[in-house]
Design a protein that fits this description.
The protein is α+β, with helices and mostly antiparallel strands and 591 residues long. The protein folds into 3 domains: 3-146, Creatinase/prolidase N-terminal domain (Creatine Amidinohydrolase, Chain A, domain 1, 3-Layer(aba) Sandwich), CATH 3.40.350; 159-300, Creatine Amidinohydrolase, Chain A, domain 1 (3-Layer(aba) Sandwich); 304-587, Creatinase/methionine aminopeptidase superfamily (Creatine Amidinohydrolase), CATH 3.90.230. It is 35% helix and 20% strand. The strands form 8 sheets. Strands 4-3-2-1-5-6 form a 6-stranded mixed β-sheet, with helices on both faces. Strands 12-11-10-8-13-14 form a 6-stranded mixed β-sheet. Strand 2 and strand 3 (62-66) form a beta hairpin. Helix 4 (95-103) runs parallel beside helix 5 (119-129) and helix 16 (418-436) runs antiparallel to helix 17 (445-457). The longest helix is centred in the middle third of the chain and has 28 residues, at 304-331. The chain is globular and about 65 Å long. 48% of the residues are buried. Keywords: Hydrolase, Metal-binding. This is Peptidase M24. One of its GO terms (molecular function) is metalloaminopeptidase activity.
Length: 591
């Protein structure tokens, strides 16, 4: 079926059910960012493959609401599909609901599949439509009938990590969550998000590409804890280990019925991390407490074992990145390198490292104008051939059993212009400002975001994405609840959090620049004015200096850059060949 045929089939199903508008979020029953094939509903319906967006379909309009990271990509992918791009003004906002409220007449019906919408999304839709007398039905899965050959759920094996890898046992983690539930006066709690489940039970899998997670739900009540999972995914020894942690195992499909039959006075549900269908399964006699999953906050603060392992993963990743950029520099003049080829080669360099499992997301290898697309992924159609000129942006990461990495670097393949140098230096200045930040305990992500953007704003430049996101420990490369973006006004930066700092600058149709390191938040000093924190940079990869316009930097920025590159060389040299070390030594010379 073409995308237009699929759209027409959905509209026919809507007409049969008396539905005036149908909403398709980019999600699954676990409110995942990255999805199993079965739930890549937006890609199947419209052809758009970005990781954030919402479709809204009426009888005479079909739109994709997404943010500035995907505007160019969406315009290209939606061409000829019957869908149009609607540009979001605020990232993540339910602006499609307001549009439906303004467009549809009173008495209309809007529907969505409650398995694909979080409770907070369902609430936003209801709040926008109820006042204008539009009925909302969150129990309609139209795709199940029109999606021929829809993929089944994944069946890959899962496995448990040991305490030497995680630094904390499953029993201790569950006990900490139960203590938080007691503080909230919650008698029960359902965990839907896969990275929370993975952290809490020290379990990993490969049900989602690039994310070492396994599909499951976890229910805590006053008498027992239950994991809902395809039992065939676990070995007998792992099942026994979970039993020893007082975890009962039941079939994955039984989770909703278990919540529906729950005999508890109250249950804690995270509205952003629980699907509407699960929320709607809660018995009417059970009070619902809406709050963030306790495990989400606990998981974000890494323990000493996780931090030590992560440093080791950064070392392996730095070796791979060094070999990669040396290889690109030496091979580019032959005219045989493409965006797809270099992404594949980078994965091979990473795979040579001990305990490599997978990449942590699809590599963004953007040459020239493709670098201006923050979430670009090369295809056979777009695959650009590299030449010894212009800028190359590479955003990539690895999943190792001892940590997750995420790094962005920009290099000049030759003939850099003065404007490229100025833009690069200004972005670098932002990265350094964020990395050097000293801030009081309780600081929120929007404040770090502003500190990082300040030198970029001063030049009347800006970028349309957040400055940083949390990163998991051998888990999702995008981890909540903390972010460094303008909307994070409620989650404080805590000691032990790992976060990216990645300002950028994008000139559409020309090039893009983004320089990203991961940092660890650490306590600095306590005095009469309070507790102060700072960042330790974890990422080990040289920052190119041939693009730096030194006159645009203050002495503190130059000192930071020189010290950082010297640290990179010192840390990596002994793990490289003599030739590789000599190459890196040249790249890290002080400016």
């Amino acid at each position: 079926m073409t995308h237009i045929a699929r759209l027409n089939a959905i509209r026919a199903a809507m007409a049969d059910r008396g539905i005036d508008a149908y909403i398709i979020p980019s999600s699954d029953p676990h409110i995942s960012e990255y999805l199993p094939e079965r739930y890549r509903c937006i890609a199947w319906t419209s052809g758009f493959t970005g990781s954030a967006g919402t479709l809204a379909i009426t009888k005479d309009f079909a739109g994709l609401w997404t943010d500035s990271r995907y505007f160019v990509q969406a315009n290209e992918q939606l061409a000829g599909t019957g869908f149009e791009l609607v540009k979001l003004k605020a990232q993540g906002a339910a602006e499609y609901a307001s549009w439906l409220a303004d467009t549809l007449p009173a008495g209309s019906t809007v529907a969505f599949d409650g398995n694909l919408a979080s409770l907070s999304v369902a609430q936003a839709v209801e709040e926008a439509l109820a006042p204008v007398d539009i009925r909302v039905d969150g129990h309609v899965d139209l795709l199940e009938t029109v999606w021929e050959g829809r993929p089944n759920l994944p069946v890959e094996k899962a496995y448990l990590l040991n305490n030497q890898q995680t630094g904390e046992s499953t029993m201790d983690k569950i006990a900490r969550v139960k203590a938080k539930l007691k503080e909230k006066h919650a008698a029960a709690h359902i965990v839907s998000t896969l990275d929370d489940l993975a952290w809490l039970l020290n379990i990993r899998g490969s049900d989602v590409k690039c994310n070492p997670v396994v599909l499951g739900f976890f229910l805590i009540d006053e008498s027992k804890t239950t994991l809902f999972i395809d039992g065939a995914k676990l070995s007998e020894s792992d099942r026994e280990r979970l039993k020893q942690s007082d975890v009962e195992i039941r079939r994955y499909e039984e989770a909703f019925a278990a919540v529906a039959s729950l005999d508890a006075k109250s249950i804690l549900i995270d509205p952003k991390r629980t699907c509407f269908a699960m929320y709607d399964s809660v018995p009417a006699t059970t009070k619902i407490i809406e709050d963030i999953n306790p495990s989400t906050r606990l998981k974000a603060v890494k323990n000493a074992v996780e931090i030590a392992h992560t440093r080791n993963a950064m070392l392996k990743d730095g070796v791979a990145m060094t070999r990669f950029f040396k290889w690109v520099e030496e091979e580019v003049s032959h005219g045989k390198l493409s965006e797809l080829a270099i992404a594949e080669q980078l994965q091979e360099f990473r795979a040579a490292g001990d305990d490599f499992v997978d990449i942590s997301f699809d590599t963004i290898a953007g040459y020239l104008e493709h670098g201006a697309l923050p979430h670009y992924k090369a295809t056979e159609e777009s695959n650009a051939i590299l030449a010894p000129k212009g800028l190359l942006l590479v955003d990539s990461g690895g999943q190792y059993k001892d940590g997750t990495t995420d790094i962005t670097r920009v290099v000049s393949l030759g003939q850099p212009t003065e404007r490229e140098k100025a833009d690069y230096t200004i972005v670098l200045k932002g990265t350094i400002e964020g990395s050097l930040a000293i801030f009081p305990s309780g600081t929120r992500g929007y404040q770090i975001d502003a500190i990082t953007r300040r030198p970029i704003w001063e030049t009347l430049r800006n970028y349309g994405h957040g400055t940083g996101h949390g990163v998991g420990f051998f888990l999702n490369v995008h981890e909540g609840p903390h972010t460094f973006n303008p909307s994070n006004v409620d989650i404080p930066v805590e000691e032990g959090m790992i976060t990216s700092i990645e300002p950028g600058l994008y000139r559409e149709g020309e090039y893009g620049i983004r320089i990203e390191n991961l940092v660890l938040s650490r306590a600095l000093e306590t005095n009469q004015f309070g507790e102060f924190m700072h960042f330790e940079t974890l990422t080990l990869c040289y920052i190119a200096t041939d693009l730096v316009e030194k006159s645009l930097l203050d002495s503190k920025h130059i000192d930071w850059l020189n010290a950082y590159n010297a640290w990179v060389f010192k840390s990596l040299a002994e793990h490289l060949t003599t030739e590789e070390a000599a190459w890196l030594e040249n790249k890290t010379r002080a400016i």
